[in-house]
């Protein structure tokens, strides 16, 4: 269809009007103006529909369903859901894997349609099928990093891949999508290959020795000190592992320390008579690994926002940022734990009669509600990672007042919250009620997590800049 040259029309008519000289010309001009007034509305409609503008808006990309991303996201969540308190394996290690899976899905989609910056893969293939690429990248990564879960979940991953690819018409686009998924998985794996030397669970060469002085971390058998090199792996988005190091914990001879000591001693003990049933319930509810818990929250929150706001690309990016934020928060908090090397409540309370605070009363038989992780106390990793994930959701969706209902692998039933900050706060406080942390570790961890979330949101996987013409 031919387009109407608007500029030419107005220029010609402008010249004609300037050329009117005589009275008859003026009368003719008036007649033409009256005619123009009559036909103008119709002309304007045609004008708006047909004018060819050089500064035309970029066409809106058609909405694409996030169904495939959400299917594989849920498959990951199921694989890392452990039933019963204390089951499963180390949350920081799980966080690294979740970040790899979700960075993979994000990179695969943005290799096809580059809307956002990618993490590890920088080639493009606009002819690849997005769903095939998403399915294949997660499947291939699970084959490489699934570890001890592979024998348990191999059949379900195989079945989901078969169903996912079976739903896509055969052809070149499908084959290109499969090949792209494989390539992205390899790129993610290669980029995180150097992590292996720093993520061994125990026996890292730089492990701190067990403390003897008041306030210094004391080994907790059988691992004594776990993941002592975890903070040395490469960060994902944050600049360095010490970027968010905060103020030190309270001196053990201070009145503030005494208040925190007595609180966790009374309310975090395994057989506490002061802790309410509700406090115990949410303490254990939140004890499962952060990645699984906050992935469930992300899914619940996303289900409550208009579908048009979260297409395939947006959904993949949001989930990638959430899990990258958790992974970076773990790296940052482990740096602080090594730096401050502060003792856990279980050690502090058992040694309470021999510390440098005259007002603490010890209990050599004291036990935390759940087995205390053998890592430094300060600050709380759980509070920091939960706040990072929650803040990314808030910033991305531009709304903190989204209600939440979630479940847990560690406690029956669900818990509901009026907004995301309420869930963040309860997640943090839960560590006091299972005896893991002093209150200051929880408060500082949460505050730091908000900062990590802000930084990751503002600097990670950013929208591609429009090229100027």
Total DSSP E strands: 2
CATH architectural grouping: Orthogonal Bundle
Number of helical segments? Answer: 15
- Note the gap between the termini: 24 Å
With strands numbered from the N-terminus, the spatial order across the biggest sheet is 1-2
* Whole-number count of domains: 1
CATH class: Mainly Alpha
Instruction: Work out the helicity level.
Output: 40-55%
How are helices and strands ordered from N to C? HHHHHHHHHHHHHEEHH
> Main beta sheet: strand number and arrangement?
2 strands, antiparallel
Structural class: mainly alpha
| Rg over C-alpha atoms, rounded to the nearest angstrom | 30 Å
Poorly predicted runs are: 1-63
Shape: elongated
Annotated CATH topology: Vanadium-containing Chloroperoxidase, domain 2
Beta strand %: under 5%
Mean pLDDT: 89
Written account of the structure:
The protein is mainly alpha-helical and 469 residues long. It has a single domain, classed as Vanadium-containing Chloroperoxidase, domain 2. The longest helix has 29 residues. The N terminus is likely disordered. This is PAP2 superfamily protein. Pfam families: PAP2 (PF01569).
């Amino acid at each position: 269809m031919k387009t109407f040259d608007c500029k030419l029309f107005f220029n010609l008519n402008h010249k004609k009007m300037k050329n009117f000289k005589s009275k008859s010309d003026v009368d003719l001009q008036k007649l033409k103006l009256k005619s123009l007034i009559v036909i103008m509305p119709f002309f304007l409609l045609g004008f708006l529909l047909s004018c060819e503008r050089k500064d035309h808006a970029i066409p809106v990309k058609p909405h694409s369903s996030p169904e495939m991303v959400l299917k594989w996201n849920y498959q990951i969540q199921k694989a890392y859901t452990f039933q019963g308190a204390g089951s499963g394996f180390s949350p920081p290690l799980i966080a690294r894997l979740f970040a790899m899976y979700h960075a993979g899905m994000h990179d695969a989609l943005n290799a096809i349609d580059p809307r956002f910056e990618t993490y590890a893969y920088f080639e493009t293939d606009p002819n690849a099928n997005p769903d095939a690429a998403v399915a294949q990248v997660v499947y291939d990564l699970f084959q490489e990093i699934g570890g001890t879960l592979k024998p348990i979940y191999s059949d379900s991953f195989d079945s989901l891949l078969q169903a996912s690819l079976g739903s896509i018409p055969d052809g070149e686009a499908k084959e290109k999508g499969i090949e792209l998924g494989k390539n992205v998985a390899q790129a993610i794996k290669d980029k995180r290959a150097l992590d292996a030397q720093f993520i061994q669970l125990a026996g890292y060469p730089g492990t701190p020795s067990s403390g003897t002085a008041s306030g210094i971390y004391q080994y907790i058998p059988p691992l004594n000190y776990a993941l002592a090199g975890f903070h040395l792996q490469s960060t994902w988005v944050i600049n360095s592992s010490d970027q968010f190091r905060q103020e030190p914990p309270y001196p053990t001879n201070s009145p503030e320390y005494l208040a925190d000591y007595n609180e966790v001693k009374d309310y975090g003990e395994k057989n506490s008579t002061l802790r309410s049933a509700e406090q115990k319930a949410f303490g254990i509810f939140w004890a499962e690994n952060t990645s699984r818990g906050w992935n469930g929250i992300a899914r619940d929150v996303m289900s409550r926002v208009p579908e048009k706001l979260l297409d395939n690309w947006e959904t993949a990016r949001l989930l990638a940022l959430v899990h990258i934020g958790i992974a970076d928060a773990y790296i940052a908090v482990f740096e602080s734990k090594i730096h401050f090397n502060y003792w856990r409540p279980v050690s502090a309370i058992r040694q309470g009669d021999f510390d440098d605070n005259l007002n603490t009363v010890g209990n050599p038989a004291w036990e935390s509600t759940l087995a205390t992780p053998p890592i430094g106390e300060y600050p709380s990793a759980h509070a920091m990672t939960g706040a990072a994930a929650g803040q990314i959701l808030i910033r991305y969706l531009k709304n903190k007042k989204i209600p939440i209902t979630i479940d847990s692998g560690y406690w029956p039933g669900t818990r509901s919250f009026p907004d995301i900050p309420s869930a963040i706060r309860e997640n943090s406080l839960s560590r006091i009620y299972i005896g893991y942390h002093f209150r200051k570790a929880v408060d500082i961890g949460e505050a730091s997590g908000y900062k990590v979330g802000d930084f990751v949101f503002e600097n990670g996987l950013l929208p591609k800049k429009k090229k100027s013409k």
